[in-house]
Design goal:
This protein is of the alpha/beta class. The protein folds into three domains: about 100 residues, 3-Layer(aba) Sandwich (Rossmann fold); about 250 residues, Spore Coat Polysaccharide Biosynthesis Protein SpsA, Chain A (Alpha-Beta Complex), CATH 3.90.550.10; about 90 residues, UDP N-Acetylglucosamine Acyltransferase, domain 1 (3 Solenoid). Strand 4, helix 2 and strand 5 form a beta-alpha-beta unit. The longest helix is centred in the first third of the chain and has 23 residues. The N and C termini lie far apart (about 80 Å). About 15% of the residues have low confidence.
Length: about 525
Amino acid sequence: MTSRVTSLIPERASSLWKMRGFLTNSCSPKKFRSRHKKLVFAPTKMPDCVVIFDTERKSSVFLEAERLGIPIVALVDSSMPWEYYKKVTYPIPANDSVQFVYLICNMITKCLMLEKKKDGAKGPGKKATIKDRVESTSESEGSASDEVLVVPYENLAPMSCADVAESKQLLDKLVVVKYNGALGKNMGFGGPKSLIEVKNGSTPLDLIVNQIQSLNSKYGCNIPLLLMNPKNTHNDIVKALEKYSTLDVDIHPFEQGEHTQHESFVSEGCEDKWQSSKHGAHFLSLMNSGTLDVLLAQGKEYALVVNPDNVAGVVDPKILNHLAQNSIEYCSEVTPTTSNGLINFMASSLQGMFKLEDFTSDHSEKSVKGFKYIDTRSLWLNLKAIKRLVDTSALNLDNLSTLKLFENSIGISIPQSRFLPLNCTSDLFLLQSDLYSFTEGMFVRNDARVSPSDPSIALGPEFEKISDFKRRFETIPSIVKLDSLEGKVVIDASPGLTLRIPGGVVLEDEEINDPTDI
């Protein structure tokens, strides 16, 4: 295999290195022994994939590859422990017989030679430039071979609570960016969604500020918050910021001019591609205005671009730590759909490669069918990578979602409780119920809820406006054990007739037209 794919370097045969730490010491030559020969590999970059045949003897390789986010191909059988099986990205059910190992090796060799032949077509010794990669990405757009590694949130290593100084140093490299252009007109709210009261008088803007304040206080760090405001929401946002003047949060509101307002970043109707919403375009526009150079000069290396519709987004040090430890340049938070029920939730606990066609940005119940993940449209980006691509003009407002432009890109599968969009009063009903509470700006799901999915809430047009919603719901009923709220009970009040339903009354499959029906 190594001879055919020219990985064998005979002249370095005298420089033999041991196998231990083959990933963390990936820049060192490697030694492989067989019965008749010794093979030495030249220094390499981090591998794109790890193939394991004798899985029962390679536990350390499993752990190391998983920690670095490297996909694993392995031969598996029924005797393999579950703790290692769930780390395998591409399991191959088989025993490790000589004949089968030879077959797999032969297939891998052919694949490597085919790819090498494609690279050789560009000319001997010629490396693909960023421009080549952009063109290659454009040509292959829509190809079924486009895949992205999805890592379950539960697999991420926690930050060390003991070393506060190290945590502070990492968090000081982060900046949070939030776009406030989404309006609440469809709910009868005259301002941006960021100012709608969602829980106990708190707004989505309050929640994100409280999160940053909590982190700054706990670790002694400085995480700035950049607010991108269109002209029609800027004054409202600036006025709302006055109440934060005493908090330890560095907030910078930016009023966007016409040169930063781009209406077409991606096609929102294109559901078969894993894409970012247009708030990513506004972020790039902000970076092009000179802000990127200022942030880099201040030592900032990572940006969290928050989805303006998601009120449960979290400024998560655990995710930031994973990006830094594994040199990841692009990360999108995704969450498994509920269209496939429990099987899909179980599958979401496995790390694996998924096609872009498996992702959708439309989270409506009817639209998620056939998809495995919802793109929450919250992005973690490496600012140095953005700078590199901006300087080479390879990155523009139409291709941030082109993952191939980045050296290392992944998706992180977060729990559904961390993706709670606010698009209508049905969403507001869910947020204000006893199903969720919040602490330090983060929504927390009620442990009494047994089902992994939230109940289905579909309020009628009479509840469409926030004013009507508040008038019709003096208190929000308990929904911890609710499966659905979809009009199984019909309440029809004649003109001039008031029907008041007292607390504690249980209604099921009933039609109420008169107070005597209650």
